[in-house]
Amino acid sequence: MERLRQEIECLFSTADTQRSPSTLAIFQQFRDALSAGKIRAAEKRDGQWRVNAWVKQGILLGFQLGEQSETGSGALTFVDKDTFPPRNFRAEDGVRVVPGGSAIRHGAYVAPSVICMPPMYINVGAYVDEGTLVDSHALVGSCAQIGKRVHLSAAAQIGGVLEPVNAAPVIIEDDVLVGGNCGVYEGTLVRSRAVLGAGTILTRSTPLYDLVRNQIYRAEKDSPLVVPENAVVVPGSRAIKRGLAAEWGLSLYAPVIVKYRDQKTDAAIELEDLLR
Q1: Tens-digit pLDDT profile for residues 31-69
Q2: pLDDT of residue 251
Q3: How many Å apart are CA 59 and CA 31, to the nearest integer?
Q4: Is the peptide bond prior to 118 cis by the omega test (within 30 degrees of 0)?
Q5: Are the C-beta atoms of residues 242 and 266 closer than 8 Å to each other?
Q6: Which residue from 268, 43, 118 is spatially nearest to 134, judged by alpha carbons?
Q7: Among 227, 224, 223, 232, which residue's Cα sits nearest to residue 260?
Q8: What is the DSSP string of 209-240?
Q9: Residues 158 and 184: beta-carbon distance below 8 Å
Q10: Is 72 within 8 Å of 79 (Cβ atoms)?
Q11: Separation between Cα atoms, residue 237 and residue 201, nearest integer Å
Q12: Which of 63, 54, 212 is nearest to 123 (CA)?
């Protein structure tokens, strides 16, 4: 992949890169590797998540080289860059895409045994690992990294981070449950086996209050908001104690860690094997 990396970086750094058979061939090789999971926008090395900026550069290059094109048939048609058409899966791929208006873009990796319930969307650069369930109305944004056996519940929104190219995407590690109507944005890292209760919103500007360990977690200049391993997070609020807001009894949204995962939690969120 080192040669491919050098070619992508060279094309991306050239201001007047034009669409041509040679540049499209390089991009096609890049996109195929991305769709196959051979390369990814971020990966864990030596216990730390690292951004592969050149992969993001390749995705942006695809938008630069792409031309408007129509795909689909009948009432379900799309107009988009021809460099990122929707993916078509076959039974041998081992991915269940249930009928009902879902779409997965080329350049997104979806592992065997993933289940996609309609309608849902997986954007370019995303990586969705084995055993994950993407439920109805869920979004996996560009370059988001989703681990093994993750449950993205109905209407969960996993934000994408494509630019700047060195910015970490949203990362959901293995065995995480993301409840319905949750939103995880701006490079937030959710560690393995965490549980996000329905309606939890996590961003860089959202402090996370740990009632168990008496700590407050925040994103720093060079690091995202991190949800600890096994944390159970629910939506909460904190009172405003100054000015008219205090007089009016107003409060601000605050995600709260109320416990850490135990056998009772595991029993409550166990996925139904028969559905698989």
Answers
A1: 999 999 999 999 999 999 999 999 999 999 999 999 999
A2: 97
A3: 8
A4: no
A5: no
A6: 118
A7: 232
A8: EETTTTEEE--BTTB--EEPTTEEEEEEEEE-
A9: yes
A10: no
A11: 12
A12: 63
